[in-house]
Amino acid sequence: MPNRITKLFNIKYPIIQAGMVWNSGWRLASASSNSGILGLIGAGSMYPEVLREHIQKCKKATDQPFGINVPMLYPNIQDIMNIIVDEGVKIVFTSAGNPKTWTSWLQERGIIVVHVVSSLKFALKAQGAGVDAIVAEGFEAGGHNGRDETTTLTLIPMVKEQIEVPLIAAGGIATGRGMLATMILGAEGVQIGSRFVASEESSAHEAFKQAVIDAKEGDTQLTLKELAPVRLIKNTFYNQVQDLYKTGPTVQQLKDLLGRARAKKGMFEGDLENGELEIGQISGLIHDVKPVAKIVEDIINEFETAKKDSILSL
To answer: Does the N terminus or the C terminus of the chain have fewer Cβ atoms within 10 A?
Structure first.
């Protein structure tokens, strides 16, 4: 299924494994790339030298293209970018910041730059900054999200209508049918996160993986908009946040409750009560933990079957 996305990244299938904090180390990224899609290492949860180690291990584990997801709000950003250049990584997905800050700098060093947005307004800004492609992520997505609560179903066609660069859909996609639906709406590829959390190669704690496959409709909620909107599985920490909201808290009170390393505690260390459990609404359709290769195979087979069925039904 060659198109602008497969050509841009030199991959077999137009699928990107999202670079998620505490879930996307070198094992997940290399397994994804070896399966014919683009694997991403999530730099957001890594100190610079830890990122270097993951890049080096990923290069040994795959001879296929892979990239790095870099949330620009994190400290040590210059060190992270220097390591990416030093290690010869050729694809960077930026998020949570102004794309103008790093796009030209990276492209001047031969790196493909993709920016993640949650609205048409920011998609246009990313295109104006000269990015090579855009990920438009709907409200259904896990982790940090947009404040406007625009769903993938409406966001993709609105963005497609006004941009020229290749468009990648994200948010609420974990199946071949979901992939086909977003591509019919105008995307040329998809970025998938939650489904790959529940993979054998994910660096997530096994208890968190089990929580993901146990999650049902309504078990996640977007919260903490005053800080950085994040979709969480409802647990003790989530309930504490909601109780605090009833008192009309200040931003500082919310920060105090959040504290430090909540995401690490939940997703990486497996504290299902006191940690942040970031996952998308699509978790209600994830029922098992599988190897990455099997996940990709299932998605592609379902995509091709759904495409044939849709043609036959017309």
So the answer is: C
Output the pLDDT for position 114. 98
Average pLDDT over residues 198-224: 96
Phi, psi for 141 (deg, rounded to 5) = -65, 155
Length of the chain in terms of residues written:
314
Query: What are the φ and ψ backbone dihedral angles of 139, each rounded to 5 degrees?
Result: -60, -20
Rounded distance between C-alpha atoms, residue 78 and residue 240, angstroms: 36
pLDDT at 236: 97
Q: Is residue 187 helix, strand or coil?
A: coil
- 111's tokens: 């790196």
CA-based nearest residue to 185, from 151, 155, 154, 157 = 157
Establish if 223 belongs to a structural domain.
no
Where do the H-state alpha helices sit in 48-199?
Answer: 48-61, 77-86, 103-107, 120-128, 152-160, 176-184, 194-197
Question: What CATH number has the domain bearing residue 147?
Answer: 3.20.20.70
Given this model, what pLDDT does residue 207 score?
97
Cut 0.70: pTM above it: yes
Residue 128 falls within a domain, yes or no?
yes
Q: How far apart are CA 279 and CA 220, in angstroms?
A: 7
Q: For the chain, what is the domain count? A: 1
Q: Which amino acid is at 227?
A: L
- Residue 232 falls inside a structural domain: no
Residue-level pLDDT at 101: 94
For the chain, where are the alpha helices, taking DSSP H only?
4-9, 26-34, 48-61, 77-86, 103-107, 120-128, 152-160, 176-184, 194-197, 206-214, 236-245, 251-258, 262-263, 292-312
Q: What is the pLDDT of residue 5?
A: 98
Statement: residue 314 has pLDDT above 80? no
Minimal CA–CA distance to 116: which of 105, 84, 157, 103? 103
